[in-house]
Amino acid sequence: MPxxxxxxxxxxxxxxxxxxxxxxxxxxQRRGADVQVAMTEVATKFVSTLTFEALSHRKVHxxxxxxxxxxxxxxxxxxxxxxxxxxxxxxxxxIGKLANGLADDLLTCTLxxxxxxxxxxx
Length: 122
Known about the structure:
The chain is of the alpha/beta class. The chain has 5 helices and 4 strands, in the order βαβααβααβ.
């Protein structure tokens, strides 16, 4: 399925399977998608942000309130960007938060603020 010109936000949550998100990113790019990555803090313990930044050529979003002093509401800006959001891997914890409308980190706030289709893959 060609994805040329599509903007996809890849959400990565804290699971041992987080390393598989690297191959998902590459697969989306091979199909022509422009991919941006948002990660939970725990996900960064399994795969570094540098890995995703090097492959996506974009800043990886991890902090709800970055220390940069940027007055912008980061999760709203990130949520407005994609045509599609994909979370892989999605932990049971993240799925439970989404199901109950809980938003306590950048990734969950972004996913709940988005108005594009969302694919959640455990």
